[in-house]
Amino acid sequence: MLTGTEIMFLATAAVPFKTEVPSWATPPPVTVGEQYNRDIGQQFVSYSIPEDYTYTIDKNKLIDKLYSYLDLGDDWDGYGGKAPSLKAILEATNFLKSLKTKVLPYTMLSGDGEVGLYWEQDGYFVDIGFYGDGEYSYYAEGPNLEPLSSDHSEVSMGLDAELEEFLSNLS
After folding, report:
1. Which pick of 17, 49, 57, 166 has the fewest CB atoms within 10 Å?
2. For residue 57, what are the domain limits?
3. Total of domains in the chain
4. Are 167 and 101 spatial neighbours (Cβ–Cβ below 8 Å)?
């Protein structure tokens, strides 16, 4: 019969201990201030976290999600889906890092290995896809705007000016 100590040892030995802290888990710069509440006659400490810190956490979580696609093999969807290439994931990640919009996209995968980013908000829809071949494709539509699309935009040239302007409509 095992004792409590032996069981504890077995439980902890079976699970690898991870010491690495994810990049999005770094503590935010916090502003500390003292304030006085006249209604209750007490002084208290207030803390404020910069507004863009949550955005950085969320963006890094999206990047982590994109990298998690590397764990997928062929037939990842049960319908013969092709696994995304490292290059497609890197292109999508670098694109995401360079975005200036404060509205973050959702990520998606297609059965043909395409890594995608898309936004859907207030009648606007934007879909950007990466195959890892040095090009990206996009489709965008929105209220009172002409739809935009391209099947062959070069990743190395950055965001198309029309698409960048279109994305600026998202808030």
Report:
1. 17
2. 50-167
3. 1
4. yes
